[in-house]
Amino acid sequence: MSSHQRVRGRYRDTEKTTSSSDSDSDIPLPSLSTKRRTGKYWTDRHATGLGNLLALSFVLWLFAKGTGFEFPFPKPSTPPSVTPKFIEEGIRQCEIINRSIPHFEPSSNKRKENDRYVKGTKPTLLKNGTLWTGEKDGHEVLYGVDILIENGLIRKIGKSKDILLSLKERKDAVEEVELNGSWVTPGIVDLHSHMGVDAAPETFGSEDTNSVKQSVMPFLRSLDGFNTHDLAFNLSISGGITTMLVLPGSADSIGGQAFPFKPRWTAENTPQSMLVEPAWKIDNGTWARTHSWRHIKHACGENPKRVYSQTRMDNAYDFRQAYTHGKELKDKQDRWCTSPKTQTEPFPTSLDWEVLSDVIRGNVKVNIHCYETTDLNSLVRISNEFQFPIAAFHHAHETYLVPELLKQAWGPPPAVAIFSTNARYKREAYRGTQFAPKILSEEGLSVIMKSDHPVLDSRYLIAEASWANHFGLNTTIALNSVTTSPAKAMGLDHRIGYLREGYDADIVIWDSFPLVLGATPKQTYIDGIKQILHPISHEKPVHAQKIPPTGKWDKEAREAVEFRGDQDLRPKKSAKNVIFQDVGEFHLSTNTFAEYDVQTFEEGKGVVIVQAGEITCVGKCSTEQTESGFEIINLKGGAITPGVITVGSKLGLVEIDQEKSTWDGVAPDPLNDGSELTNGLLIHGVDGAQFDGKNELLAYRAGVTTGVAYPKSSSWINGISFSFSPGALHPLSEGAIQSSYGALHITLDNSKTSVSTKIAILRKLLTQDQPEDAKTELTEAFDMIKDGKLVLVVKTDKADTIASLIRLKKEHASKSKITILGGLESWLVAEELAENDIGVIVAPVRSYPGDWNTKRILPSVPLSNHTLPSYLVSRGITVGLGIKEEWQAPNTMYEAAWVYANSPSGIFTKSEALDLVGKNLEKLLGLNTNKGSQTKAWVAHQGDPFSFGGKIRGVKGVGQVEIDLF
């Protein structure tokens, strides 16, 4: 249509001549037919009409200008431009993806309140504390300082006088807490937890750690499986945990997204209300993206290999394929955002791959379960191929062997989140060393101690830092490894991990310096809210308030690297004649020196002389005549104690728990597999004994002189235990097998056969006399049990099951000697156990409600007055301490020290605490070791055996003449 065909907003007939009589205007317009017939006619008429039009327009303009009149005709206009909604939404997405990576300035007093602040929370003034701030400028420790908590924040750090002046009229509204010099630290931060998704007690209905539908699932979120009813929340808070990164499990190459939580229950009582700075949140009814960090979990190596029957090549391909999808999506999004208003399709996204595109953009903290050098190398290459940073390698048992490799990762070097002594449970962890934190730190890498809760109860995460410090990690770095360093790796160090003004009021008050063995919180604050309603605390000695020295293990650390984690752990030197100088305590009673049951000496004065492998003098001994031909060892105020006994694990029968080729094997279960051959058969553990393994040798070097093992069985009747020397080379070595026939072990909990069925069979075995021709080795063993000649060790935790055993003994086998192994609910029937002379080997020592049979635990300080061992002892029960996994055996002595430190005053002397892992176990297990002074096992400690920092310098095994020196 020609321009002259549209006049005053309406269309005209192209074949009709317009005139003044039939038009809204007096302006004549030619028809197209006239124009086409004669150009002259068109030109003359057009010129005349144009002049008339201009004149008329001028007159009308003057008229309108003078009168303000507006013509009633619509004004020509351009229709408004409407942007499609999908483009508007896409532009918003472009703004999000084009933001710089998350970066936050450290919080300051400009911050008015914590976003998690609970209105009505009373301000608190913590007075006269000794602060560990987390700083590295020489001011990490502040003495005699006060902290004002207000609006969920640390409002002021200083002196009470100045703080109270600043409060003015609000002074009366402040709760004041006198700390009397107690140590105060930032809240403990756990970078690797499964709390809430692997909830306690574990049941089928609450197990949400892993999905095993496919190996790559970046779209899964731990938030969606987070159980707010987990019994671990209060327990972990009582250990000082204030923030944890809750990760999906490690079954998958990419298991899903992780989320940071604070374990404080909220009024809303939902998982989302426990989040810290979530990347997405409900904002005024809208699901909105924030500018906070996201988190994701990857895993490599044996876990995906085991679950999906993959090779490591498959595992690496998983990552490369997934990140190729992520990069393709990123590139599509970037292209879309170069010209959003010209797009005809919505902003490209993918539920499967969007988080990986965000990883490549640098907005996601990548946490990788990765142990072994080959896997670490693969992930470092992949991080460079797709150009994304790695926040931390977790578990990472071989990182200490390849620190330079970690520095080759794309972006800043990853942190290393590791255990202290938990190793050797799988092939990937077999070269792990307790010196890894020291080695990595000295290589300039950030070291983080983590729990992998509930693999380790995160309540005791501080103990991981303590062990690391004991084995050579600098004190400041050790304490920062559970506070500032994980906060930084989590991207939250702008608000947690330090004691700074303006930071979240996540604070722990301790009963001793946090890295001292047995250190326990007196109180934990999260978001400025006191978490332990009625805390119980035992006063710790003055020396426990001091910062302990870092352990000196330079030589051992060098050897670990030199031999690539496979150094020779056997004793390098032995001697029959030794003089121990500067002995502080002597805890032995020997045939020769029975009067020296417990002897303490002034500093530098105690001497112990060993001649031909036998102790010949204790105390003030003359060494003038004996120094020639003697090894002389200064114990620096240390002690000589009985040898330690370990029981409860498969030490001596299993070398690597997850490698069946290293086991003795599993005995069959005649109740469930229908095997006639094994009916009445009694398995002897000694027939499968294994020696010279790492766990045994490390235990021996830690003072464990006797191991007790019973057969690994799928049956409830396990078999006969044996005792052995962890330092022996093979079963026929001198003194290797200490007792081949120990106790009969059975298991009542957690198997296919009901507890009531097992009790019924026990009743039959204990009450019915078998004809001579029908007797089996099993029935003969129960005849011995009935007469009290053989100990029956029953593995069970549940109080109700223990009650059935008590009733069985009382009614049918009053002479029998029964010992409970496990016993986490045994405190509920303590009086009945004492009345029927049934002892308990508590294993593990630190109670945790891991399943339905253990949910009624005695939690220990600060939640209860007693530890479980101290409560049972206070009720007259013979108590020993046990373990559950082989790697725990070297720590046995320190578990006794932990019980001693955290039990009420007067329950244990030091010698009685040592009996928990010594002579009490001999009685409870029916052992016949340590007969006479020549066969008695003992250990020489350099430094206090009841605290970290010391070393074992000499071990005399059962029946040995020579003392092995370390």
From TrEMBL:
Signal peptide, first to last residue: none
Keyword Protein biosynthesis: no
Pfam families membership: Amidohydro_1 (PF01979)
Keywords, in A-Z order: Membrane, Transmembrane, Transmembrane helix
InterPro entries: Amidohydro-rel, DHOase/Allantoinase_Hydrolase, Metal-dep_hydrolase_composite, Metal_Hydrolase
Residues annotated as transmembrane: 46-64
Residue ranges constituting the Amidohydrolase-related domain according to the UniProt record: 184-515
Protein name according to UniProt: Amidohydrolase-related domain-containing protein
UniProt organism field: Kwoniella shivajii
Source organism phylogeny: Eukaryota, Fungi, Dikarya, Basidiomycota, Agaricomycotina
